[in-house]
């Protein structure tokens, strides 16, 4: 089955389109001189525009850009027509700050290490050779510190590299921090909070400095001699009964568009909207560690160029990613998105013992993935579509934990000592997925399902009764909800206008398996800015200006356009075009085994059909036997 041609309208910007959009800005007398280019991506259609496109109306290709200037405040949001090569609209946000760009982050280290005040602070700690000093540019948040008003602030943290390619995260220069204006390159302030001595134990992970590696295991190959079962047409893909478009944004990273099963729409748009990483240590300058990896930096810009046989196994198809740098120049990440198939084991099985007859179907899934590095952490992201109608997402966190120092054997209660004198703060990774739902078209609602035990009485004389109740939410404030283990709370999206075989609205259940309890004070500087973490589920009516859970412009923001504030409009969310926001993640009390490189920890969620089909949609899978499987001892045996 080829992917539908209508999906081509949702393809991410091509290199030619990126260059064309930048050229329009450069030619504009107001915006062009001295322009600093921020996020540049496709201006995606609204639900109404998309429905009109499906009905035959040509969809306009437009680019959305964030433009700022070193000598002027604020950010311009500009829409450029890629057909007429002209600016369609421009809006100025006078107090907003664009996301940090890669070039700016690299420049922070240069300007800090050249500052005489910083050099003197290092000298007081016994560092006379600045070559090995590593300055990581962390987002500065919004703490109201004097002298930071109006600046695009990074609050840098420092480490010491003892020799080339060495693991510098083993040697934090704890308590030495620098406030920097990322846009202008001005060092605003050196903060020397004091602190423990620099841990000097070498803890490498690079094989160049390690003992000989253990003996390798025998090869385990994923072989598809007849090729893959998916069909690609540009960024549109068809696999089994699924069709969808694969998008990309330098902010969001991977975006999935118009996901359909057997032609029936399920999700109009799916992507990660935000990731915030609050660290739990109030010591020295660590209270400012509350980084928004998507809103303040952008996941897509940090996509890895993936390597065949390393990041994914099997028969692989790659897609390149394109965006522009700070100066508007084209940047291409080759092989930034991976597409492949995976075996998932038994999908369903039953043995009819009376007839001694067994039916078994193995499942497989389509995987669309990428890997991002933001500072010390790697995030490997996987979108899965299976043969039973389920859409799921998994993120694997790895990389190197953020480190601090302590007097050996005397860590504070906010950290874990992972090596003598080396600590890592307790922290969380809280993701927010944005899911524009479209079950069987427009007109969707959110339902909450809670289970209760029936009290012992005439209706439940033996005490074994329990039941589930369903509540349809009518407004935004009603639909802001948290998980409940006591009632095994779940949520599902329904289309009340389409009924299944038993007369119930068709639906998809949100399997929210990794809900995290946030510990930030809601009225504190970091808790205010990350107010979207207060609930595990939010629902809003679609609005083209409400794209991200922490707001459009997150750097040094005040939280006023976060989800907790947006929903105070209390708009209707019943039987309309809704956006489902789901917060999930990891709570990480760090172990010594998480260093020097952390084994992957995973979190995610699933959207599974709940009355969307009249029976198991994988019931029609054919019988198959994998004849490539053999006995481990090499002897001949029959297959099933």
TrEMBL record:
| Tagged with keyword Manganese | yes
The GO biological-process annotations, alphabetized, read as: amine metabolic process
Listed A to Z, the keywords are: Copper, Manganese, Metal-binding, Oxidoreductase, TPQ
Task: Identify the cofactor(s).
Answer: Zn(2+); Mn(2+); Cu cation
Output the PTM entry: Topaquinone (TPQ) is generated by copper-dependent autoxidation of a specific tyrosyl residue.
Q: Report the EC number(s), separated by commas if there are several.
A: 1.4.3.-
Residue intervals of the Copper amine oxidase catalytic domain:
220-618
- Which EC class heads this enzyme's classification? oxidoreductase
Q: Where is the Copper amine oxidase N3-terminal domain?
A: 101-194
Q: Where are the active-site residues found?
A: 293 (proton acceptor), 377 (schiff-base intermediate with substrate)
In terms of domain of life, where is this protein from? Bacteria
Question: What PROSITE patterns has UniProt attached to this entry?
Answer: COPPER_AMINE_OXID_1
Gene Ontology molecular function, alphabetical? copper ion binding; primary methylamine oxidase activity; quinone binding
Q: Which Pfam families match?
A: Cu_amine_oxid, Cu_amine_oxidN3
What the record notes about the co-factor is: Contains 1 topaquinone per subunit.
Q: Has keyword Metal-binding?
A: yes
| Sequence positions bearing 2',4',5'-topaquinone | 377
Similarity comment: Belongs to the copper/topaquinone oxidase family.
What NCBIfam families does this protein map onto? PRK11504.1
Q: How the protein assembles, per its UniProt entry?
A: Homodimer.
Name under which the protein is recorded: Amine oxidase
Q: What is the lineage of its organism?
A: Bacteria, Pseudomonadati, Pseudomonadota, Alphaproteobacteria, Hyphomicrobiales
């Amino acid at each position: 089955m080829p992917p539908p041609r209508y999906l081509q309208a949702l393809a991410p910007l091509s290199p030619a389109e990126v260059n064309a959009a930048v050229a329009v800005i450069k030619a504009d007398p107001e915006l062009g001189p001295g322009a600093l280019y921020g996020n540049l991506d496709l201006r995606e259609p609204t639900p109404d525009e998309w429905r009109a496109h499906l009905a035959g109306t040509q969809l306009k290709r437009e680019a959305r850009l964030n433009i700022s200037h070193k000598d002027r405040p604020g950010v311009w949001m500009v829409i450029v027509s890629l057909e007429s090569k002209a600016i369609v609209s421009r809006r100025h946000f006078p107090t907003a700050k664009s996301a940090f760009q890669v070039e700016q982050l690299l420049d922070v280290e240069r300007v800090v290490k050249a500052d005489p005040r910083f050099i003197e602070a290092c000298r007081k700690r016994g560092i006379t050779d600045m070559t090995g000093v590593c300055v990581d540019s962390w987002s500065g948040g919004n703490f109201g510190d004097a002298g930071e008003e109006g600046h695009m602030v990074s609050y840098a943290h420092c480490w010491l590299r003892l020799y080339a390619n060495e693991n510098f995260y083993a040697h934090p220069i704890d308590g030495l921090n620098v406030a920097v204006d990322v846009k202008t390159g001005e060092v605003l302030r050196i903060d020397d909070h004091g602190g423990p001595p620099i841990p000097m134990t070498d803890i490498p992970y690079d094989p160049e400095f390690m003992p000989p590696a253990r003996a390798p295991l025998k090869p385990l190959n994923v072989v598809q001699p007849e090729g893959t079962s998916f069909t690609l047409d540009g960024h549109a893909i068809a696999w089994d009964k699924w069709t969808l478009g694969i998008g990309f944004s330098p902010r969001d990273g991977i975006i999935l568009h118009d996901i359909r099963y057997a032609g029936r729409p399920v999700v109009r748009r799916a992507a990660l909207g935000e990731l915030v990483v609050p660290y739990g240590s109030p010591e020295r300058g660590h209270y400012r560690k509350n980084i928004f990896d998507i809103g303040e930096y952008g996941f897509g810009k940090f996509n890895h160029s993936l390597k065949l046989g390393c990041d994914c196994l099997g028969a692989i198809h790659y897609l390149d990613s394109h965006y522009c740098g700070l100066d508007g120049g084209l940047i291409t990440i080759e092989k930034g998105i991976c597409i492949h198939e995976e075996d998932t084991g038994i999908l369903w099985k039953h043995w009819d013992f009376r007839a001694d007859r067994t039916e078994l179907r193995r499942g497989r899934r389509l995987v669309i993935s990428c890997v991002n590095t933001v500072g010390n952490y790697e995030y490997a992201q996987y979108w899965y579509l299976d043969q039973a109608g389920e859409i799921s997402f998994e993120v694997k966190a790895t990389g190197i934990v953020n480190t601090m120092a302590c007097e050996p054997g005397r860590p504070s209660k906010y950290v874990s000592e992972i090596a003598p004198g080396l600590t890592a703060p307790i922290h969380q990774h809280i993701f927010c997925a944005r899911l524009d739902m479209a079950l069987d078209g427009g007109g969707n609602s959110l339902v909450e399902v809670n289970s209760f035990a029936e009290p012992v009485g005439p209706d439940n004389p033996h005490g074994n009764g329990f039941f589930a109740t369903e509540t349809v939410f009518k407004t935004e404030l009603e639909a802001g909800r948290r998980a409940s283990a006591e009632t095994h709370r779940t949520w599902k999206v329904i289309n009340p206008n389409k009924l299944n075989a038993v007369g119930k609205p068709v639906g998809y259940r949100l399997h929210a398996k990794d809900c995290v309890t946030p510990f930030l004070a809601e009225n504190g500087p970091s808790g205010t800015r990350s107010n979207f973490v207060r609930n595990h589920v939010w629902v809003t009516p679609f609005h083209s200006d409400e794209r991200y859970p922490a707001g459009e412009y997150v750097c040094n923001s005040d939280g006023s356009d976060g989800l907790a504030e947006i929903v105070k409009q209390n708009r209707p969310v019943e039987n309309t075009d809704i956006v489902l926001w789901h917060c999930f993640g990891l709570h990480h009390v760090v172990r010594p085994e998480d260093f020097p490189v952390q084994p992957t920890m995973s979190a995610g969620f699933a959207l599974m059909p709940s009355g969307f089909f009249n029976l198991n949609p994988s019931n029609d899978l054919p019988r198959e036997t994998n004849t490539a499987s053999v006995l481990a001892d090499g002897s001949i045996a029959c297959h099933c």
